[in-house]
Amino acid sequence: MIKVAPSLLAANYLEFGAAADDMISAGADALHYDVMDGEFVPAITFGQALLAQLSKKPIDTDAHLMIVHPERHIEEFAEAGARYITVHQEACGFGLKHTLKAIRAAGCLAGVSIKPYTDVHSLDDVLEDADLILVMTVEPGKGGQKLIPFTLDKVRQVKQMCRERGISPIIEVDGGINAQTAQSAVSAGADMLVAGSAFFKAEDKQSFVRELKALLP
Ligand code: DX5
Ligand code: ZN
């Protein structure tokens, strides 16, 4: 079954706890937590302290680190209760393999993300070190953007690369996912869908999540 991870980025910022409760009651699999540092991306969002509070809720947390030097913050996010920690290939360079190993050593699931214009083969050396591959379907940095269609080719390529190696990390997509675009992402090979605006705009959040979870390739 497809996993659905609503993104806190689109929540009402005076009501983060209620937003997490909405995700739980809607049947979501994880709370997607977008960390932005004002350097890897222009905006600044939230850090470990809020995550530590949200991690007390009965839902996995999926920390998407859009930050430079993510290797300096792995321990803190692990201690804050993150289930998944995803770092950007573009922020790690040659240290990527080491950082993914550090995430696993901290007891979390290790994710690596690529931006729309990053070559999928930049992941060649680390596929076995990742529990999750996040293919960005928009430029990271803000919610409410339209999915960039060519990014779905990257999802297909990543899926094929994993198949050839006989491995099956979770393939996550993030950006512009809604009831209309989700099917094409799943058909391309996505197993986990992040939805920010579409989740919080949905009148009936439970049906929204149920429909996405039931999609078939
Ligand atoms: C964008 C973030 C996304 C964002 C998605 O940089 O990584 O997680 O919340 O928002 P929507 O679903 O509105 O495109
Ligand atoms: Zn994200």
Topology summary:
Elements: E1 3-6, H1 16-26, E2 30-36, H2 48-54, E3 60-66, H3 74-79, E4 84-88, H4 89-92, H5 96-105, E5 109-114, E6 132-136, H6 151-165, E7 170-174, H7 182-188, E8 192-195, H8 197-201, H9 205-213
Parallel strand pairs: 1-8, 2-3, 3-4, 4-5, 5-6, 6-7, 7-8
Helix pairs in contact: 1-9
The structure holds D-xylitol-5-phosphate and zinc ion (ZN).
Zinc ion binds next to β2.
What characteristics describe this protein?
217 residues, binds zinc ion, single chain, eight-stranded parallel β-sheet, 20% strand, alpha/beta, binds D-xylitol-5-phosphate
Alpha carbon gap, first and last residue: 10 Å
Spatial order of the strands in the main sheet?
1-8-7-6-5-4-3-2
Arithmetic mean of pLDDT: 98
Based on helices, strands and strand pairing, what is the structural class? alpha/beta
Instruction: Tell me the fraction of residues in β-strands, as a range.
Output: 15-25%
Total strands: the figure is 8
Bound molecules: D-xylitol-5-phosphate, zinc ion
List the helices and strands in order: EHEHEHEHHEEHEHEHH
List segments where confidence is low: pLDDT < 50 over at least 5 consecutive residues: none
Helix content: 25-40%
Inertia-based shape: globular
**Gyration radius, to the nearest Å?**
16 Å
Helical run tally: 9
Largest sheet: 8 strands, parallel
